[in-house]
# Entry
Amino acid sequence: MPRRVVVIGVSSKWGSEIARRLARLPEIEYLAGIDSEPPAADLERTEFIEADIRNPVMSRILPGTEADTVVHCGILLYPESGKPAGALHDINVIGTLQLLAACERTETLERVIVRGSAAIYGCEAATPYFFTEDSASRTPLRTRFQRDISELEDYFGNFARRHPDVVCCMLRYQPEIGPQLDTPLGRYMSLPLVPTQLGFDPRLQLLHADDATGALEAAIQRPVRGAVNVAPNGSISLSRALRLCRRPTVPIPHPLFEPALARLGDRLGAGALYGDAVRFLRYGRGADNTRLRSQVGYEPAFDAEAAVRAFAAGVRGRSVGPSLHLGAVADRLAGALR
# Structure
């Protein structure tokens, strides 16, 4: 059971939420959060330490906390507003490398839990119905983000091999969704007119936000060694998901879908990651959650369809922004097809 916990990336939604949950546990003696900017909300019992994980100063800060548990919530899945796309690589890869160097110097460390991504499996036409954790090495690395995730996992795996006394758990998350969760995928599914790829109806697993935090809390209290897929039970097709959201669609020939999505990319907050989104919305991806349920001991409260239904109930009638009404979306799509 963790006693002294440090949450990396505490100003993120997931870092703040897990810090809030851990603060309620009486067995937690000390709780700290490290980030380059303070969290938006006041976090009870959490000592905030301002630091950038890309800075070598982490190797002095982390050992001083005498942490037995480090929870890495600082991996970015989408570009940050106003920052270049290259910052994603620096934070995810260089930042993780510096964090692991700090972990090397933390003699009290017993467990490290990383909130990673199932994007390491990629999105391909011919894949297993559900990826198991040992499938990552069998798929090609086609995008920059997928290569970054693979690289940081390699660093993490090397650390785990050098420190067999430390329980190292890599959580591979499927995309999260929720009525109050603002993500590029959620904004895409909230468009008044949703572009889809003609001839493709991908099978999706969208994880409810409550299960995303619940699985992380369970993994902190009962960590297992190696990778663990964090995904709901079952899957749902994109067409059914959009019907549940009551969103009309406009099918676009798939060679033209990428430029169409690129025109919407800034508004959706996908930035340079729209190439990953194109593949995800063409082929989809499924991940087997057996290890999450049987070894971590977490049973998702929402299956794939229930997660979309909960999201749909919150987005009906909601627009993405004042400039993205139906006519604006149609104009942007028409411009991409010219």
Notes: The mean pLDDT is 90.
